[in-house]
Design brief:
By secondary structure, this protein is α/β, with parallel strands linked by helices. The protein is built from 15 helices and 15 strands. Helix 4 crosses helix 11, helix 8 packs parallel to helix 9 and helix 13 runs parallel beside helix 15. Strand 1 and strand 2 form a beta hairpin. About 40% of the residues lie in helices and about 15% in strands. The protein has a seven-stranded mixed beta sheet with strand order 4-10-9-8-7-5-6, sandwiched between helices. It has a four-stranded mixed beta sheet with strand order 1-2-3-13. A four-stranded antiparallel beta sheet has the order 11-12-15-14. It binds pyridoxal-5'-phosphate (PLP). The site of pyridoxal-5'-phosphate has 16 residues, from helix 4. Pyridoxal-5'-phosphate binds next to helix 4.
């Protein structure tokens, strides 16, 4: 059947994706076609499921009171309430919040804030560089892409990127921890690499180090090893740079902690959140700023030199606040922890023996399967084989499940990924169905059914 005509600039100019006419609970309803089990919440976004009535009510109430006020000139109770909730959720580690329209905008704001921090300190002339990690993803706007280490997403824009960011190895034990190396020795090696990078580029030229607390969609749900974040922060502080954690993927409950750094007890100077903040009900992200940074701005210009027309949007803030209250009232951070363990168990039981499932990893309700051609050598499939995208398509077309395909970006670098990031309110029955359908889609493409 010929695809319907469309004026939308989709990723493919000729093959538009299925149209979703409505969504409820954990299901997307396409037209035509049967309901699709949403096993990845889009891209780890829909954290309380679709069509939650409380969010509908909160949005209507906000529309009735004030749909928009220009945030550089006016505040609103909705913006104040969300910011105050976010700060108090960090136990004082964060003091101010700047609400944006997306994750990438939050990262852009973090990059600009880090830069301004050093300008205010009188080091603006020298501290212009960033250090981030290879294969990281911080967003698709040019500033956020500039700090991202995702080679394929950067490639065609390279001349437009500033070249002021360099990248060190991620914490990626499955591929990069040496045989017989202890976790501690591996973490020390990564901290040493960061330290070497500071010296290579000039330690006093670095403005900030930016990391995903838990590497999400591009590396595939890799939680930091014990002690890793603390050691990276220690190196960063020794050289006077800011330590920035990007929690756009991992934050707001997904890992079984409201903020993923809370599992490690390592606080950032700046942090970003998005996805689970608004749960997909509204486009929203946020930059959160520590007292240390606020104090320097306070002693200096007394202002943050950045704004956008829609920042602090009251409807987005009201919706996100209510999403967070649902998470609290329904005990969903705890459910992420409990259901996350169950999901890991079920994935290992069902797919651990599959000849092409090289690694099964995750924390909370963020899990990934790394698929390889050869499990012993960890040789990835060639990128051209499009293994993960083919499994994604099979899931949609034959097994009524939406999973997130990833990885397989550059031949030989890593394997294809299937990322699962369901809503925080899944039950054991939902998890069983997710595992069953995911396994069927994988076996349909790669064989190896039990
Ligand atoms: N940072 C991380 C860690 C992400 O995973 C993403 C998106 O996947 C972003 C930033 C960008 O967020 P957005 O797509 O909302 O701009």
């Amino acid at each position: 059947m010929a695809p319907p005509p469309t004026s939308v600039l989709h990723a493919s100019l000729t093959l538009p994706p299925p149209t979703i006419t409505h969504a409820s609970g954990h299901y997307l309803h396409p037209s035509p076609g049967p309901p699709i089990l949403d096993a990845s919440g889009g891209a780890a976004v829909s954290c309380i499921g679709h069509s939650h009535p409380r969010i509908h009510t909160a949005i209507s109430a906000q529309l009735d009171s004030c749909e928009y006020a220009f945030a550089p000139h006016f505040s609103t109770p909705a913006y104040e309430r969300l910011a105050s909730f976010l700060c108090s959720s960090t136990n004082g580690a964060m003091k101010k919040v700047f609400v944006t329209g997306s994750g990438a905008e939050a990262v852009e704001a973090a990059v600009k804030m880090a830069r301004q921090y050093f300008v205010e300190k009188g080091e603006g002339g020298t501290r212009t560089r960033f250090i981030a990690r290879q294969r990281s993803y911080h967003g698709n706007t040019l500033g956020a892409l500039d700090v991202s280490g995702h080679a394929a997403r950067r490639a065609i824009y390279e001349p437009l990127l500033s070249g002021k960011t360099s990248h060190v190895s991620p914490c990626y034990p499955y591929r990069e921890k040496r045989v017989a190396e202890t976790d501690e020795a591996y973490v020390d090696r990564l901290a040493q690499e960061l330290d070497d990078e500071f010296h290579r580029v000039g330690a006093d030229t670095v403005c900030a180090v930016i990391l995903e607390t838990m590497a999400g969609l591009t590396l595939g749900a890799v939680a930091p090893l014990q002690g890793y974040l603390a050691k990276m922060k220690e190196v960063c502080e020794r050289h006077g740079a800011l330590f920035v954690l990007d929690e756009v993927f991992a934050g707001m409950g997904r890992t079984g902690y409201l903020h993923a750094w809370q599992a490690e007890g390592v606080t950032p100077d700046l942090m970003t959140v998005a996805k689970g903040l608004g749960g997909g009900y509204v486009p929203i992200g946020a930059l959160m700023v520590s007292p240390k940074v606020v104090e320097v701005l306070g002693r200096g210009s007394g202002a943050f030199v950045h704004f956008q027309t829609y920042h602090g949007h009251p409807v987005a803030c009201a919706a996100a606040y209510e999403v967070q209250q649902v998470i609290k009232d329904e005990g969903l951070v705890e459910n992420c922890r409990v259901m996350g363990e169950y999901l890991g168990e079920r994935l290992r039981a069902r797919l651990g023996g599959h000849p092409n499932v090289g690694d099964i990893r995750g924390r909370g309700l963020a899990w990934a399967l790394e698929l390889v051609k050869d499990k012993t050598t960890k040789e990835p499939f060639p990128v051209a084989q499009k293994v993960a995208p083919t499994i994604h398509a099979a899931g949609l077309q034959k097994f009524e499940i939406a999973v997130l395909p990833g990885g397989g970006v550059v031949d030989g670098v890593n394997g294809d990924l299937i990322v699962l990031a369901p809503a925080y309110n899944v039950t054991r029955e939902d998890v069983d169905l997710i595992v069953q359908r995911t396994a069927k889609a994988i076996e349909h493409v790669l064989g190896g059914a039990p």
